[in-house]
From TrEMBL:
Listed transmembrane segments: 305-328, 418-437, 458-486, 492-517, 524-544
Location of this chain's protein in the cell: Membrane
One annotated GO molecular function: ATP binding
Topology relative to the membrane: Multi-pass membrane protein
Keyword rRNA-binding belongs to the record: no
Main location: membrane
Keyword list, A-Z: ATP-binding, Membrane, Nucleotide-binding, Transmembrane, Transmembrane helix
GO cellular component: ATP-binding cassette (ABC) transporter complex
Top-rank taxon: Eukaryota
Protein name as it appears in the record: ABC transporter domain-containing protein
Amino acid sequence: MSYGKLNVLNNLHLTLLQGQIYGLLGPSGCGKTTFLRCALGRLRISKGTMTVLGKPPAFPGHEVPGRMVGYMPQELALYNEFSIKDTFWFFGRIHGLIRKDIETRLSFLINFLNLPDKNQLVKHLSGGQKRRISLAAALLQEPPLLLLDEPTVGVDPILRARIWQHLINVVKDRKASVIITTHYIEEASQANMVGLMRDGNLLAEAAPDELIRSHNVSTLEKVFLKLCHASDQLSVKVTSVVCERRNGNLPEKDEEIPIILQEGVQNKPEFRMDCKLWMKSMLPKWRNIVALMIKTFTRIRRMPGFLGFQFLLPVIQISLLCLCIGGPPENLPVAVVNNDTGQPAMSQTFLSHFDSNTITQIHLNQSDAIKGVIDDPEIVITIQLKLQEALKGFVQDVLGKFAYLSSLPIKNFVSIDLNWNIAFFLAVGLTALSFVIERREGLLDRCWIAGVSSLEIILAHAVFHLLTMTIQTALLLIFTFLVFKIPNEGNLFLIVILILMQGITGMSLGLVIAAVFDDEQSAAQVALGIFYPNIVLSGILWPIESIPYVLRCFSLILPQTYAAEALRGVLYRALSVCLIRDDTLDSKMCSEFKDTTMK
Ligand SMILES: Nc1ncnc2c1ncn2[C@@H]1O[C@H](COP(=O)(O)OP(=O)(O)OP(=O)(O)O)[C@@H](O)[C@H]1O
């Protein structure tokens, strides 16, 4: 087994018999955790064979990983927002335990591991208490195989002795098998068998007494030191001692050997796949999806800041956009130069259509008026709009039923699109961060090892996120159409579908980011880095037709370009008669229009 070029387990032969505790000992970095992860199906061995409870780990339909194995990782891998009770319920549901069993195991383990009140939140517990909860989660479903990675770190000597006694009882009463890694070499003397590892090799594998006796020393620690010393000089000889011993003790029946690892073996045994079991294992389990959704709900419920962020942010954004963008300025002084000598009545009619709230007419001569325009270009844009509106009213008076044909193609590009954009980016950010954080804290790994599939994790996330997005969308719609009364002529159902689809697209992008980046800092940087270029290039701020050609090609493959266009199409469908376009203008109406204007 290797990580890239780093060879971690070398020619390792290890056998665990049923009803035994196997103490795997060795210095930091020698490969103990790597071995456990191979046994759990999280890593694959590159050469040789490995069977766990009769089949290779992660074999289709095999419940390793799953409820047949209890794993306590080195990191805590606990949900901080959970109470002790929630933690037991979560893992209990995943393992398919019934309510009564969960309650019974909960009270036993709280008592046995000396845990505080079951309603205490994990984040309020001490490091040692958290480790005991992590151990309890591994013991919960009473599996036939327990893999415990340094379970006694940070535990006081009295409790350590109790944990060992419990493990001894478990193997005696239930014939379970246990592999335990530890730095406290002496505590492993209670194991039935110990394996001493160094640099990915097994230096020796035997019962502790036998090791002490055969090496003629007083403690296991001294055996280990002696073997390390010997392996530096005579590595071949030490390995052969290990092999000799193992071959003499193997039971005849396969099911009595929960774990066999033989690296470097060429002839791999064949395992038949049961198609029914395979199909069953591929189908997502509703039980796991519900457990994961309850988990997310429980966590979010205990994070009021996060909850506020999810639901208040869209409301704050839409309120700010509607209040600060697009509102008309008031009392703008406008120079009016009326040089109309032919029909003064027409120019007066036109001027009477000016909105007097926004525009205050000041009659000036031509040169003073031009100077004012040059001095104040920003205000001129607003005034131009007001002029266009006045022109529209004027044309309405003059052209009657054909007035709509002369209206101007002005699109409300910014405000509405930016509001919907929040659904997309909340989905990107929250998905990316939640997956990256859960993976870094070992929570995803723990779920996988408990038997939850990646598909179930994604489905649970998607369903929960869709529910959240439905509330966000409802808030957006209420504020857009009812509070700020932005006109909508389109189909509300289509608008909702489009916003939800943007959320799903955002979620998918979030998953891609989480798959590529390992830490939340990089994931957050990428999610933020995408935000602004996406808004600029997707035609949300300005039509893509005005973007340079090369960038426009890029813009068309962005996830929001067509979505934003579609949303605008739905929202303004009834207003689209404003646009004069050669291809949409009916020729009959065109000639009618000409006749009327000629008259
Ligand atoms: N994800 C990884 N990528 C690359 N190298 C890794 C990875 N995980 C572990 N290693 C390397 O593999 C070797 C064995 O690591 P492992 O975690 O199995 O050691 P260990 O015996 O469990 O140590 P400890 O007792 O400190 O937990 C180490 O040299 C480590 O640096």
